[in-house]
Specification:
- The structure holds two protein chains of two kinds.
- Chain A is of the alpha/beta class.
- Helix content of chain A is 25%, strand content 28%.
- Chain A has a single domain, classed as Rossmann fold (3-Layer(aba) Sandwich), CATH 3.40.50.300.
- Chain A contains six helices and twelve strands.
- The longest helix of chain A has 15 residues.
- Chain B is of the alpha+beta class.
- Chain B contains 15 helices and 21 strands.
- In chain B, helix 10 packs across helix 11 and helix 11 packs parallel to helix 14.
- Chain B starts with a strand and ends with a strand.
- Strand 6 of chain A pairs antiparallel with strand 12 of chain B, so a sheet runs across the interface.
Amino acid sequence: MSISANVSALKEHLEQLFPGKWLSGQTRPQSLATGIFQIDQNLPKGLIRQRITEWRGASSSGKTSLLRACVANWCSEGHNVAYIDVQNKLVASDWAFVEQGYCAASAPDTAPKAVKSPVDPGRFWVIRVGDSILQPLVQASWAADQLIRSNTFDVVVLDLGTNPIRQSSKQGDRIYGRLQRSLSHAKTALLVIQDSDAVESGWSCDTRLSFNWGKSIRRDEGLGGPIMILPSISCSVWRDGLSRTEEVTLDAQTSNRLFTHPQVPDRRTPKK
Amino acid sequence: MTAAGSLSRATVIMCSDQASKKQVGFGMKLSEARAVCADLTWRQFDPALYADFENKLMRNLLSCSPKVSMKSPGVFLLDATGLKHLGGEDKLCGELLKSASRNGFVNGNVGIADSAFAAIVASRFPIVRRRMIKPGKDTEFLGPLSIEHLPITKDVQQTFASLGIKTMEQLLKLPAEELAERFGPEGMQAYELAAGRDKTAPMLLPQERKFHCIAEAGVPIESLDHVIFVLKSMMDHLLDLLKEGGLNAEELTLSFYCSDEKFAERIVKLIRPSNQTKFLLELIRLSLDAEPIGREFTGIAIEISKFSHERWEQQVAPIDVQASMVKQLSINEVKEFSEPLALLLQRFKSRLGENAVLRAVANDQYFPENSGLWIPVLQKNATCQILPVNATHLQSTGVLGSLGSGLVLKQVTPRLPVLVELGDKAPTAICYYGRWHKIKEITVPERLSGLWWADNFKRSYYVALTSDDEQSGPSLVLIMHDHVEHAWFIEGFFD
């Protein structure tokens, strides 16, 4: 028997022993390609709906930049994405053009395409729970649950930041079970992001990716020294017991903040 | 200036006197208005807000006259008969202007005449704040005035002008039958108004309907769970009254009492009117979960502070969810959404607040802090000025990708003060979270300065890659040197 068939049979057996924690390998729901060649070639099924995918990496590891490229790709294909920002860290200017399919840095092999049809582009909404009085983690899991149940969003990103769900904790198990139940009745893919270097996580996720800065660094030289430093991103993909590491190089232009008015404002009046 | 419509097609609805002086006028496009007046501030037209204010003002004007009605936005008709023994018309004018000023409308004018039309025209003269036409002299007053005061279309006005009719006196000289034959009911109405005959009259205000219910437990209660069954029956009673009148609730007000003293009030606003008990109870629970009362109470009151007539229209089917997520979300547009999306937004609003669900909007500003804004999806009016970036033009010139940074920045709020070891020109190591990190690579500084007349701003931004050590891997950080405060900070980490 092939390796993947063995893994599927094992999952089915474990599903009988531990119902709700393990999913049967027989069902093949639809999936979403990330749009990044190096990730997609190791994830032929892409981001699977009704499953939890986990992205881990240090606080500064490049994972959110890759995620932005994926979100831009999904929006350009008409998918709706919701991002739950538990620690209120996102900067608006970085995400302003994502809905139109643009992100400042993209993997050169498969750059996000512009919106195919201007009529129905995907939506990108951010939900902030950091200001809430109640525990941000509780609010974030509630928000994720509501978004999944609404069946309105194709991808829900739960960015826990430095608030990891503790391994085998009661709260973690409760949150996991609830989200898994909601996913089983929806067509949403849940992407959990954690700022953690630990290899193992507490949840039995379908797919796990971990990120670090790569070794190659791109420098754009200007007058007097480098004006941009762009390291590559090392990405390890784990699924069905197999893992593989790839390096993704982003293609970006130098931030042109000084020239936010590159053209004279368009004050033309329409012709009568 | 107030404008209605989407950003690209917004037209001016009303504007201040200062804007009018700069040639901004009704019906102009927003882009035209901004072209003639560069420092224009505008707000989205919000009819619900204005209706609410006008309703409040009308209720206040009741103290001056029992019959009050609104002719058009900003124009109120009051019955001024029988005031001889109450100080006369002069005193009435003073009371009306005071009442309007107390409500924030300081530029009001008052006109008193036999007919409503003559009174409205009398109030249009900006220099004279109060104008009283003597009884029986309406026609004499209106005679020399221009026909532009009459409610006639531009075509009819131009036709009158071509016939040499410029004043109402000239209009009255025409035979009524010929006017009716040529201009129809519009012409006849203009004739009647010019003659000082107006059937419009103020009416008694309809009694304000109130839907409220109060329950006294008699004993201190800590949690709402203990009285949920009471709450349910209160809601059932109120909503039955609403349904009888064909109404839906738009806003609920919960008041909490402790021994007859009100100590807390909670307002629950609905983004979509509803009269379903289960849904409203759920919203109340979510609102109280988000912000618990924190104190025992002995009584609770529920009031439906805003309501509207039920819309007997087909709801958008769930399969239309994709098509119904239109680009610009305003309160009115949200009402057109599918039921699941509207309910989802309502739940988020109740539990997490109005500013929980956001979308990113680019702002054409110089400083990085202002170059993007998080705008609430449920925002009614623009609370801050946004200068939109012309993405289509930037896309065509190929510079759209350079507007944002190459990598996503995860900001540190508040910014983190750091110690810096300086080399020849740039930092060589930084200390944060109690540890020193050597800098492996660093960019030349990007220097921004400005606002010397207000809040002096002089900063240098560096992007630095720290070396990896035993305890942590490399990090890409955005370091800022504030030349005004003479301090170094970390703005955020690139992830």
